[in-house]
Amino acid sequence: MKKKIFHNWGLKLVSLLLAVVLWFVAVQINDPSETVTFSGIPVRLTNTELLEQENKVYEVMDNTDVVRVTIRAPKSITGDLRASDIVAVADVSKLTDINTIAISYSIQGISAARYDTIRGDHETVRLNVEERASKWIRVLSQTTGEVAEGFLVMSASADQNMIQVTGPESAVEKISYALVEVDVSGTSTSMSLYVEPKLFDADGNLLELPAVSTNVSSIHMAVEILAWKEVPVVPGVMGTPAEGYLATGELDCDPTVVRIAGALVAIAGVNSISVPAEQLDITGATGNVVNIVNIKEYLKENVRLADSGFNGRVTLTAYVEPVYERTIVLRRDDFDFVNIPDGYEMELVEPEGGYKLTVSGLEEDVSAVPEETIRGRADIGAWLAEENIEEPEDGDYRIPAIISLPEDALDGVSVEGVSTNREMTVIVRLMKLEEI
């Protein structure tokens, strides 16, 4: 039996090899190998908890966790192969001193013996490994864009003013603050929404830090949007100044106009803000009276001041001046005498300094009285008839002269030296002419 097995053993070995070759050729003819390439294959990192246990964080450098994989395998395999079947793994436990991890490649559900080769366009994942750092940063809020015409952003606030950021120490150190913002373009109603915070450095530059996480993913913001309008502040005044002083009637308010805000229906009927007269009492005043009041007290319900930087305090001023006096002297040329009796001559007897009128009031008003338009007129004949004097004797007579005063220039002034019916007593001297 043994002789039969080893009889012509060389021929038998050649036959076996020939059979293998023929089988291989047959397989290649029926199921040839081909090369296929898949892009964008993610590399799965395993054992990342090892870094977390050491209080370290990592960041993949230069997108080395995404590979392009090339496979050479029989067509029976490649024909059904999908990108999801390709497995690329980097084990963090095998991290090198230069922070690289070798990538191992395989095809899910297919043994390595069934395909020829599998390789990626790079063989390692490169990491940046740092100490983990955390800190709390402030949260700022703002709006962008312009609200609808006639409306304003009354307030914009976030429901928290601090958040915690965690990540690589070098990245966390760059962060100065977080910002949440809402676009209010064309809006006329208040808004309430959640906004993702953005991270900024101290120079106001937006930071893109994928390795940094925050303890909240969004922050609630409330934006109050109200209608607004400008209205004047109207102060009142009461009282009388001290003797020898007058109120000019001028009232100042600083500021004179303020902006109010509220719902459209609330501000529609508000055309001014009135300050009660008792807030500006000039009783017994010998100079300007100033008072600072808070006009918030005089706003209607559901109406507010629109400017956040204005605290509502306005300065009210009532102007008080000393009485100003001006003396106007009338001479002969300022009088007209009519109906002088026939056969008589007349001359005006002037007291020392002339006939005087004293105009008093506010300096502005008194100074405006035109002296050149003031004249006196005396009807001598009418006076003699009233006194039943037919032939007056030579001598001095006290007779009334009507003083004409410019009506439009006497507003706010008083005139002393004339009676209420504007008569001034003058002295005239009548002398009978000698008959020739």
Describe what you observe in this structure.
- The mean pLDDT is 90.
- 13% of the residues lie in helices and 47% in strands.
- It has helices at 2-6, 9-30, 49-53, 75-78, 169-174, 264-267, 363-367, 380-386, and strands spanning 33-42, 44-46, 56-60, 66-74, 86-91, 100-107, 117-120, 124-144, 151-158, 162-168, 177-183, 191-195, 198-200, 213-214, 219-235, 245-254, 257-262, 273-275, 289-294, 303-305, 313-322, 324-330, 335-338, 344-349, 355-361, 375-379, 395-404, 413-416, 423-432.
- A hairpin with an 8-residue loop joins strand 5 and strand 6 (100-107).
- It contains 8 helices and 29 strands.
- The chain is mainly beta.
- The strands form 6 sheets. Strands 2, 3, 5, 6, 8, 10, 11, 13 and 14 form a 9-stranded mixed β-sheet that branches.
Main attributes?
8 helices; mainly beta; 29 strands
The low-confidence runs, each spanning 5 or more residues with pLDDT under 50, are: none
Radius of gyration: 54 Å
Percent in strands: over 45%
Mean pLDDT: 90
Instruction: Please give the alpha-carbon distance between the first and last residues.
Output: 207 Å
Query: Count the strands?
Result: 29
Share of residues in helices: 10-25%
Structural class estimated from helices and strands: mainly beta
Principal-axes geometry comes out as: rod-shaped
Total helical elements = 8
Give the biggest sheet. Answer: 9 strands, mixed
